[in-house]
Design brief:
By secondary structure, the chain is mainly alpha-helical. The chain is built from seven helices and four strands, in the order βααβαβαβααα.
C-alpha cells in the first residue's frame, strides 16, 4: 500500500518524472511490488501555485514529504500534516530513514492529520488534572448542566446541580 505522489506546478517536470519512473521500474529488484504500488497508489498532481500544492500536501497528510522548491523552508512552515518533512534537494527520505537520526516510525495512510511520529511521549503515562474554582463553577454550572443534558447524561447534570447547596438550594 505504499504510495508515491508528486505535487508540482511544472508540466515539464511531471512528464520527466513519469518517464523516469517507467525507466527505473524496469530495473528495480522488487519491480512487481513497486509497479503495483505506483499503479494503485501513485499519482502526479499538477497544481497552479505553491499554495495549492501545500493545501494538497496537507490534505494527503503523507508519511514522508520531500519539499524541493526555491523556498523550501517557507513551504515547510506551512505544512500541518506530515509524518516527517524533508527540506531541500539533499534531504531525501533515505537520509532521514537511515542516517539523519530522525524517527522512522511515522503515521501512515494520511493519519498524520491527527497523529504524530512515535516519540517518548507514547511511553509515558500522563494524567489530566482538573481544578475549577468556586467562582468559575458558579459562572458556568448552568451551562455545564445544559451540555450534559444535551448529551443525554442526566446524572452528570445532577452532579453539577447538586453542588448548588452552597448557594442556598
Amino acid at each position: 500500500m505504499a504510495s508515491a505522489v508528486l505535487l508540482t506546478a511544472s508540466e515539464q517536470l511531471a512528464d520527466a518524472v513519469s518517464k523516469e519512473i517507467d525507466r527505473q521500474l524496469e530495473t528495480l529488484p522488487r519491480h512487481s511490488i513497486a509497479a503495483q504500488a505506483i499503479q494503485d497508489y501513485g499519482m502526479i498532481y499538477i497544481g497552479e501555485s505553491m499554495d495549492e500544492l501545500i493545501k494538497a500536501a496537507n490534505e494527503l497528510a503523507p508519511e514522508h514529504l520531500e519539499i524541493i522548491a526555491a523556498d523550501a523552508e517557507a513551504a515547510a512552515d506551512k505544512i500541518e500534516n506530515a509524518g516527517a518533512i524533508f527540506i531541500g534537494r539533499y534531504s531525501s527520505e533515505p537520509v532521514g530513514d537511515y542516517f539523519a537520526g530522525t524517527n522512522h516510525v511515522l503515521p501512515t495512510n494520511s493519519t498524520a492529520r491527527f497523529s504524530s511520529a512515535l516519540s517518548v511521549y507514547d511511553f509515558i503515562k500522563r494524567t489530566s488534572v482538573i481544578y475549577y474554582s468556586e467562582q468559575a463553577w458558579q459562572e458556568n454550572e448552568a451551562k455545564i448542566a445544559r451540555l450534559a443534558r444535551l448529551e443525554g447524561l442526566e446524572g452528570h447534570a445532577r452532579a453539577i446541580e447538586s453542588r448548588s447547596w452552597e448557594k442556598g438550594n
